[in-house]
Amino acid sequence: MLRVSYGELLAQLKQSFEALGYNLGEYESAATCVLSLELWGFGGLALLEAALPSLELHKQWAPAVTYESNALMLDCFQGSALFGLIPSIELIYVKARQHGVSRATLLNCTEPEFVLPLLMQVCQRGYCASIRWPSTEHPEHLRWVRLEGDVSGIRVDSKIWQAGAPLEPSVDIEVAQSIGDFSPDHVDPDGQGLSLQAHWDNAALQALFEERYMSSVTIDPWLWGRLQDLGRQVLVPATEASRLGAGAD
Amino acid sequence: MKSPIIDPLTSAHDVAGAVFDPRVSTVIDAGAALTLRPAAVVMDLDRLGMMQPSRLSFMRTLVRRMVREAWRINEVCFALDDEGYGEAIYCLQASLETYHFVVFSKPLEDALRNDRVISNQWDLTMALVRGHLSDAQLDELRRNVPLQEAGRMDDNVLVLSRANKSSRSFAEAVACLAAGQQPDVERLRITGYLCRTTAVYGSGKFGMAGWHVVKTSCRSFRTPFSGEMFTCYMLRHFACRQVEHIARRRSPSTAVTIAPEIERYIGIGNATGLGMAPFLIKHPVLISHWMTQRETALARVLNQTDCDAVKLRALQSMLGRVTQHLQETTVAADYQTSRNQILVSACLDLIDLLSDATFCEGLTSRGWRKLQTFVEDHYGPAAEELVQVLLFELYPDLVDPLEEFMAVDESMDLDSGMPLIELLVLLETHYDWALNINFEDPNHHALFWYRSEEKMEPRLGDRACDVGAEREMPLLVALGVRQCFDAIQPYLAENPESLVVEFLMAHPDQLATVRRVQTLCGLPYGDIRGNLSDRNLEPMHLLRAKLSFFGVGKFDPKSKLWVRNTMFQGAPIVADLSQDVNPDHWYFPTAPVL
Q1: Average model confidence (pLDDT) for chain B?
Q2: Which residue in chain B is spatially nearest to A91 when comparing CA positions?
Q3: Contact A7/B at CB under 8 A
Q4: Residue at a domain's end among A173, A200, A227
Q5: I need a surface site. Which of B69, B423, B515, B569 has the fewest CB within 10 A?
Q6: Smallest CA–CA separation between B274 and chain A, in Å?
Q7: Are residues A113 and A184 in the same domain?
Q8: What integer pLDDT is reported at residue B477 of this predicted model?
Q9: Nearest residue of A to residue B458, measured between CA atoms
Q10: A-interface mutation test, from B213, B481, B502, most A Cβ less than 10 A away
Q11: B15 contacts: CB under 8 Å, gap ≥ 6
């Protein structure tokens, strides 16, 4: 495994995503999302590795969004949550501002974990968020993360629940002004016939974040090489004429 | 003294009874409102090209810290052969922290010596490492540091750099010392250094420790670029020891060491190209923060009214020093020579005026603002920028505390719930300079910035004749603002009550511009007011702005696109750090008289 610095990886991710055809702003946010998930222990790099083949194949469409009042439905067309969701998450936030709480269902969305960093940004404005999704590897596992935040930081609580049968493959999100505004489904799935499999509380996740933030990031050399190969696509071949464009004598 | 909190919403009219201008910024400084110069003046690209190094420049800040904290630098290894090739290691004890500076010297044919970033061989390669240095770490450094960008470092390495000898002054210095003479001051006056660094890398590149790690765990280098500046300082020290060593080996019976007053006059050369320019665009929050500290210092100083005889004499003396410095500065470009000459004329005029009792009386009764207005009216903005940094020297207690506030967490915030009409107003009021550019005119959209596959070197291309425009770097803020404005207008006409988020749902490609505009409306010094694609663009202005924050001197443009300059010339040498020296008496250095 290769060790790279946080800043080095962030710069490489931005360049690679730029090469994939994404806009400034979007590729910056996507790079930050990958790193945030890695730092918070949600496996950002592994998720990126899973998403890369389809991202390289075709630039992803923004989701189709329909909404009524504070309830939204997003169809992601089997696309990754890594790209195209910033305006939609912002819309969920704005609806929560207007109504106290808003709810969204994401259909046909891969790597839904990438929504988490976007929700963290929402929570930095003093809101709460909850997101539930079935695990890709274990469809009977329900992953549930709750975020509470303010300008000084984010509190994160993450649980995995075991269901008796595979769950509906949709992602459910709620954003609220306070935890009391969440629907019962998002307060705690304990009473819905699910059993708790694992729990990382805020202290554990914060400790992991602090540790990882102050050290290098470990990355598979293959993935690092792939990102570098992608990034080279934004570079312009050198010629004698181009060297003049840097002030060659 | 705390860092000021910027409050762009408070108008000059509200706080100072001045003419209302919504683009004038004020800061809350020690509980009182302080009016700063408007961004339209400060961030004008031409004006940025006139910036001068000041007490807040990173080199000055570093030297003050080194002297104040009595940093100890010891040579722990100096294994060079007769020709000066080998390696050297220096240990830095700074307060309770330990660092090591490691430098490797290798033979290099003259034909391969090249200042360009795309070069791959150098006379010297070096690294700054935190903590103690094990044999295994040293072996890793031996393998990787000489490779520079092609090597991999670990996160104990803070800075990576390389340098070349100045082909003329290095050899001449060796010859002089070997013959028992001091290096020729006239030669040093022209070149200013023995070695020239061609790149200094930090902030986590090539596996090194990231900036967030450095600023939180390396107290000595917690301010921006201080590790990079220290590496250059150590290079200066090593270069002097290296020429002494070669001279001693060449002629043991006659060789002498460099006299301290000569060594202080030896700086480190630096060659800088376009690579610095994208940094200024990509880090608007940081740039705004740097500028705010500098403008706060200026406002604090200009508010002082104690223009007494002592201070006026001190200013007169500083102007004399600047005059001598500029007269001793030799640069290649005619336009830079003539700019220096204009400044010399202004300085000589002011020196005369400061001997005039009536002129001084006017200053004494009306304060430094009177002087600033006079200088601007009579000698123009370049002289104004120069006099400002000299005034900083008169008030270290007002200026120096701001050096602790040069670091900032950079983030850009999106306010998606903002009514779209408000965003349009922000664009019209804060980005009028951008909207006034006619991008339909090919001359205003002539150049593009791109990264070359040669070490990702930033380069400028001409849309009319160069390839690569489809891969241009997204640095054209003004064009982005224009495109955003043009997208908002029809959307707003159809959706007059819409919010920013709804606009972004329809125009997701505008996300970056919207976020930048919303953030920087509260940080007015974040965006450089210029068109970076204009055919008549002077990229040198961008380089000068950033280099002034570093604190370089003898700005010597070699073309429109790259510049040589001198670092640390006149600064205290290592032997001075344990002495009770004035750490600040080296601005605008002048040649020593032996």
Answers
A1: 92
A2: B501
A3: yes
A4: A200
A5: B69
A6: 7
A7: yes
A8: 97
A9: A246
A10: B213
A11: B26, B33, B35
A156 in the same domain as A71: yes
Q: Which positions in chain A touch B515 (Cβ < 8 Å)? A: 25
One domain for residues A52 and A66: no
Average pLDDT over residues A159-163: 92
User: Inter-chain contact A88–B416, Cβ cutoff 8 Å?
Assistant: no
Does A236 contact B116 at a Cβ distance shorter than 8 Å? no
Q: A86 — contact with chain B (CB < 8 Å)? A: yes
CATH number at residue A120: 3.30.1370.60
Query: Same domain, yes or no, for A20 and A129?
Result: no
Q: Is A67 on the interface with B (CB under 8 A)?
A: no
Identify the CATH number of the domain in which residue A43 sits: 1.10.1530.10
Nearest to A141 by CA among A167, A121, A123: A167
Checking if the pLDDT of B24 tops 70, the result is: no
Among the listed residues B552, B587, B555, the one whose alpha carbon sits nearest the alpha carbon of residue B571: B587
What interface predicted TM-score (ipTM) does this complex get? 0.95
Residue of B nearest to A12 (CA): B205
Question: B466: which chain A residues are within 8 Å (Cβ-Cβ)?
Answer: 241-242, 245
Q: What confidence tens digit (pLDDT) does each residue in B387-430 have?
A: 999 999 999 999 999 999 998 888 899 999 999 999 999 999 99
Q: Could you tell me if residue A240 is inside a domain?
A: no
Question: Across the interface, do A238 and B273 touch by the CB < 8 Å criterion?
Answer: no
Give a yes or no: residue A207 inside a domain: yes
Give percent of chain A with pLDDT exceeding 70. 97
Residue A44, classed as helix, strand or coil, is helix
- pLDDT grade for B495, boundaries at 50, 70 and 90: very high
Number of H helices, E strands in chain B: 24, 14
Q: Collect all residues of chain B within an 8 Å Cβ-Cβ radius of residue A29.
A: 511
Q: Are residues A82 and A174 in the same domain?
A: yes
What part of A 116-175 touches B (C-beta under 8 Å)?
121
| Count of domains forming chain A | 2
Q: Say whether both A70 and A191 belong to one domain.
A: yes
Which of B198, B501, B517, B538 should we substitute to test contact with A (largest number of A Cβ atoms within 10 Å)? B501
Neighbours of A195 (CB within 10 A): 10
Confidence at residue B12, expressed as pLDDT on a 0 to 100 scale: 32
**Which one is predicted more confidently, B80 or B594?**
B80
Cα–Cα distances (Å) from B398 to A206, B24, B287, B366, B374, in that order, read 40, 22, 21, 20, 23
Contact residues, chain A, for B505 at CB < 8 Å: 65, 87-88, 91
Q: Which two tokens stand for residue B165?
A: 């000898």
Higher-pLDDT residue of B75, B581:
B75
Q: How far apart are the CA of B545 and the nearest CA of chain A, in angstroms?
A: 18
Residue of B nearest to A241 (CA): B466
Report the percentage of chain B scoring pLDDT > 70: 96
Which of the residue ranges A118-122, B13-17, B357-361 would you say has the lowest mean pLDDT? B13-17
The predicted model gives A72-92 an average pLDDT of 94
The answer to whether position A241 is within a domain reads no
| Beta pairing, strands B267-272 & B447-451 | unpaired
- What is the distance in angstroms between the Cα of A64 and the nearest Cα belonging to chain B? 10
Coil vs helix vs strand at A58: coil
Q: Look at residue A244 and tell me if it is in a domain.
A: no
- What is the residue range of A94's domain? 62-200
Q: Are A171 and A136 in contact (CB under 8 A)?
A: no
Q: Alpha-carbon distance B557 to B542, whole Å?
A: 12
Residue A248's pLDDT is 52
Residues A156, A90 share a domain: yes
**Separation between Cα atoms, residue B107 and residue B164, nearest integer Å:** 11
